[in-house]
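Data follows
____________
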Amino acid sequence: MLVRPVTMIMLLALPAASAAQAPQDIAGAVNAVRARGCGGRPAVKPALRPDARLDRAAARIAAGDELRDTLRSAGYRAVQVAVLEASGNPASFERSLAEGGCKDITEAAYRDLGVAQRDGVTWLVFAAPLEAPAAGEAASVSARVLALVNEARATTRRCGFRRFDAVPPLAPSAALQRAASAHAEDMARRGAMNHAGGDGSTPADRATRAGYAWRTVGENVASGQSTPEQAVTEWLDSPRHCSNIMDADFTEMGVAVASSATGVYWAQVFGAPRP
């Protein structure tokens, strides 16, 4: 199993910043800094989009709630988040942002912004949204994962302490694709990432149900990746998942992704058919 955790950046107190400005003025100041760059970092486009869900998250953070809980309750799925705290003189807000918050304001991955004020303190939440592949892209996503996996298998690779020689490419399997799809959708419904199905099934059970007469079966799962590139990169960075990808005993593969309010879930099923 593999989880991509939300990146949480600890609160940064900015000197001499905002007291009681309107949220739109605060967002404008943030985007002004983003548009011209700061601290030797270049300007970034597009501007951050105000997001009501992040406003709610910022308000709860200001009240002392945990970041992860606030995002979940606000219904915002993120792959990366930063939180800044600012207090002080409204006249110097933009300059203070450039001096103390430059790194996060000019982070190109961030797309959305939340603002909240409490007791003279302004809280800013920057977020990169988790954008799941569209349902209509299933075939292209599967093909892309297979291509990336076969690219990895084509070269000598080390998975943790184990060295693998290059191995033959995997072929797509419709049956393994069905097994992967069933498990990805099951994980999305349950909001849980694991190898056991909601009914207690194993990867081998699901392959059999899908009509795959297997000699050997393996599975990788993941949660939180928005692209095939992210999913495969993180599997390859994990010794156990990388070992499955490089296993010469596997000859076929199916992969699927599904999403729900709880996140994005990937299932990759490997197999070799009985002779």
